Amino acid sequence: MYKFELSIFINRPQQEVFDYVTNPANSAQWQSGTQSAEWTSDGPHGVGSTFKVVTSLLGRKIEATVEVTGREPPSLSRIKSVGGPIPFESTTRFAAQGD
Fold it and tell me: Are 69 and 12 in contact (CB under 8 A)?
C-alpha cells in the first residue's frame, strides 16, 4: 500500500477547517479530480456514516462508496472505501498552529 503525507497551513480556526474538509459536499471545491460527493446515510454524521464520491482518474469516471471509520472533532478524521474499483484509506489530522 502506498503512503502519502502532506501538510497545509490554513489561516482559519481549527473547527471551521475540520467541518469544511469532513463535509463531502465540499470535496469538489478542494480535491482535484472530484466531481461530486454526497452523504448516503442519514445524519448526524459520524463513525459508520457513508458517502458516495464521483471522481475522474485518467479520463475515466470512478464512483466509490466511502465510510467514516474515525472522527474526533476537531482533530482527526479517518475514512476508507467500502465499494468501488480502488481500495483506499485516509487519515486527516488537524492541529492549531499558534493563535
Answer: no
Residues whose CB falls within 8 Å of the CB of residue 33, separated by 6 or more in sequence, listed in order:
55, 56, 57
Q: Say if residues 24 and 30 touch (Cβ distance below 8 Å).
A: no
Q: Is the pTM of this model over 0.85?
A: yes
Cα separation, 37 vs 27, whole angstroms: 7
**Tally of CB atoms within 10 A around 44:** 5
Please state, in angstroms and rounded to a whole number, the distance separating the CA atoms of residues 54 and 35. Answer: 5
Tens of pLDDT, residue by residue over 2-32, are 788 989 999 999 999 999 999 999 999 999 9
